[in-house]
From TrEMBL:
Name of the molecule in the record: UDP-N-acetylmuramate--L-alanyl-gamma-D-glutamyl-meso-2,6-diaminoheptandioate ligase
Catalyses which reaction(s): UDP-N-acetyl-alpha-D-muramate + L-alanyl-gamma-D-glutamyl-meso-2,6-diaminopimelate + ATP = UDP-N-acetyl-alpha-D-muramoyl-L-alanyl-gamma-D-glutamyl-meso-2,6-diaminopimelate + ADP + phosphate + H(+)
UniProt function note: Reutilizes the intact tripeptide L-alanyl-gamma-D-glutamyl-meso-diaminopimelate by linking it to UDP-N-acetylmuramate.
GO molecular function, one term: ATP binding
EC main group: ligase
Domain of life: Bacteria
Amino acid sequence: MHIHILGICGTFMGGIACLAAAKGYRVSGSDENVYPPMSTQLQELGIVLQEGYKPEHLADTPDMVVIGNALSRGNPAVEAVLNQGLPYQSGPQWLAENLLKERWVIAVAGTHGKTTTSSMIAWILTHAGLEPGFLIGGIPANFGISAKWGKSPFFVVEADEYDCAFFDKRSKFVHYHPRTCVMNNLEFDHADIFKDLSEIKRQFHHLVRTVPGQGALIVPQADEAIQDVLKMGAWSEIHSFGLHQGDWQARLQAADGSEFEVYHREKLMGTVNWSLIGHHNVSNALAAIMAAVHAGVPAKLAIEALGEFQSVKRRMEVRGKINEVTIYDDFAHHPTAIATTVGGLRAKIGEQRLIAVLDIRSNTMCMGTHRMELAPSLQAADEIYVYQSPKVSWNAQETFASLGKKVHLFKDTQPIIEQIVAAQKPGDHVLVMSNGGFDNLHQRLLNALSLETVA
């Protein structure tokens, strides 16, 4: 069977392409952004890639066209699919109907922590010898790839609440029908497609409705929005977790979250010692342990596995250290994620200088949603550099005024680099937060620091 994927170089659609190729499908695809590393990864699998969205890319008539959610009516390839009457589906639907059948799906949903928690679960199952499949919206360092078919019934999928395609406005996760379902947390996000939190709650309840009675819902005890979703109706086993609350609990042994004890109904199950930091990652770890236990992994083995977990690219990833200045790359872009990321690093480094660099890029942030929570989320940093993309329509100076002189606003990335280099001191920690490429600021900053050191 030949499938052609429109938008193939995105992490999710590229992952589907890799899985389809592993299952013996003939795969081709088109995208506007055909460049490494995704293009290289796909081409090595024998997948034919074509630049742009041209109708002639469909001349070798595929049996199915899988359309990414970045494409809409008016796109030349989309119009050609419709005019020619070619069969088409969204990525989540095709994944569910062709690759997830007869798998024990472990889905991880939530506003924050999906990628990291999914990666933890996949690693725990692998450590336990279960050889799971997975599709994750990032690259776990333990695997070096974002998707794998696996050899066991278990399949871990990052379950995104964003919509599926221009013709299917349901959240992606309604297609996955998980047996084990983690719902990490729930806040308002994606203001470009949801008008308020109640709309997202409704989508999460659609997910709850798909979990079988013999399945499990793994939820944070203290998350009010998740509890609201459960009040709409739940038909599966419910297992709760939290810091010092819930069926499964974590009790910190280090303030930065690098060591914590795990309890199940007041019984000590073991201690996690690992390289990650932050209370958010402690919560992610609890959820991952619980999901693995539901799949049959002994808790002791799951806890042991986390000691070897190496995190995910772009999640507090150290990009380099020059002249005793450490540069981190993190995907945080929502105020809650920003606050936990900054707070986690602060707990780790103590009184050393923390320089936060924020890229205001996501649709939700550019629209001004959550803008009043941004300044408090950055308060723990010593110096703050904020880049405003051209799409930002609100008054950033007013928004960040409470931070006083430690905040600096920019509409170009080069002055950010110049000012950080000019003011840098040995022992500084520079935390760069963006959900995009950020003009390759991380590497440019490292290069500039290297030149400064040589000079």
